[in-house]
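Customer escalation, tier 2.

The customer says the design service returned an amino acid string that "doesn't look like it belongs to this structure." They asked us to rerun it and document both sides in this ticket. The original structure tokens are below, unchanged.
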């Protein structure tokens, strides 16, 4: 994915932000700052909150309902920053009105509704995009570039940790709150997207909150690798780290270390040597593990605001007609893995076989 240019030779597209709560202000600010966009309206049931946001973003119109927005304002797209249970209804109304849609994670509250959104956008020839913001960070773009180039060799394992002393959400468990970030990143950087063979989840509720507050997810991948995600609302320390181990090198991403977010380690088990030993039956009993000790380096990363790139990519997709880097299908893959994690929890952590909808995949 190329980084969209800072300035545009095209006329500005017109957008409205729906939801002025937690995430809406970030979207509104980036749309207002972008040369690709004209922020036309802020829509929120709380008009005072919408008006306060409008004053900070160039005084766009303020409306209290989606119906009023779609009826009275000429817009090209909407950005939805409302609770997940409302995404489907708002997106379907916008798509029916001929508007492109970007929606914050998760795409919807279940895959049936998510699939309806994907199919409606495809039928109307409109862009449906998920705001998987981490996928537009310099570090994740570099990870994708390194994996595409085969820098790490064959992927052997992935270990992702996202823990902190966080707010226990009233409507979702820790998997649905935190894991979408890690899942969307994996879908973005892995060639072919995230298509695990199965999903197994284990959760704990030490707070008696009625939902998992600590969670572990395991996903075997089709090349024999294992992906593991640890999410936790109860940790006194905040960790945002992902390790991707390859047959040639290992990558460590520490999102909380601005001086060295990415590190590439050219050291580990010498797999070529181990394969040679295994091939010789006489030497097998006396064989010892052979290690490779090489250099460690950190790639240089560009500096830009991820949401700024996201809104630029949305404009680029609308103008070109090409799928967005984090399109509806990628968001649907993430949503299905979350559902399989929930099913595993409900059945006592039994693995759930992953069955992506092939009809949607081939139609993309």
């Amino acid at each position: 994915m190329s980084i969209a240019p800072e300035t545009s030779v095209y006329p500005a597209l017109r957008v409205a932000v729906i939801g002025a709560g937690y995430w809406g202000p970030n979207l509104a600010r980036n749309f207002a700052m972008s040369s690709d966009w004209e922020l036309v309206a802020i829509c929120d049931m709380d008009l005072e909150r919408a008006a306060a946001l409008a004053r900070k973003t160039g005084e766009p119109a303020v409306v209290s309902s989606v119906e009023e927005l779609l009826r009275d304002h000429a817009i090209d797209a909407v950005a939805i920053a409302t609770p997940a249970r409302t995404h489907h209804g708002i997106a379907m109304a916008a798509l029916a009105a001929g508007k492109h849609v970007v929606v914050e994670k998760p795409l919807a509250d279940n895959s049936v509704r998510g699939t309806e959104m994907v199919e409606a956008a495809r039928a109307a020839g409109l862009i449906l995009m998920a705001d998987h913001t981490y996928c537009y960070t310099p570090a994740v773009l570099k990870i994708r570039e390194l994996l595409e180039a085969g820098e790490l060799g064959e992927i052997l394992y992935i270990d992702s940790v996202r823990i902190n002393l966080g707010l226990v959400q009233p409507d979702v468990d820790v998997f649905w709150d935190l894991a979408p970030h890690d899942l969307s990143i994996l879908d973005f950087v892995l060639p072919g997207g995230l298509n695990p063979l199965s999903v197994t989840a284990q959760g704990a509720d030490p707070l008696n909150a009625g939902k998992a507050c600590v969670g572990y997810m395991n996903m075997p991948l089709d090349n024999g690798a294992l992906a593991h995600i640890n999410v936790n609302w109860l940790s006194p320390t905040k960790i945002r780290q992902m390790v991707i181990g390859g047959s040639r090198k290992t990558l460590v991403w520490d999102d909380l270390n601005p001086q060295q977010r990415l590190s590439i380690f050219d050291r580990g088990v010498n797999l070529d040597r181990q394969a040679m030993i295994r091939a010789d039956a006489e030497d097998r009993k006396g064989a010892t593990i052979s290690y490779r000790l090489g250099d460690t380096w950190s790639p240089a990363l560009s500096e830009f605001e991820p949401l700024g790139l996201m809104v630029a990519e949305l404009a680029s997709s609308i103008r070109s007609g090409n799928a967005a880097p984090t399109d509806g299908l990628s968001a649907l893959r993430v949503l299905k893995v979350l559902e399989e994690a929930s099913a595993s929890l409900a059945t006592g952590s039994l693995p759930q076989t992953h069955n992506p909808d092939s009809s949607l995949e081939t139609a993309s």
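Tier 2 assessment: The sequence is consistent with the input. The chain is about 35% helix and 25% strand. The chain has a mean pLDDT of 90. Sent an explanation to the customer and offered a walkthrough call.
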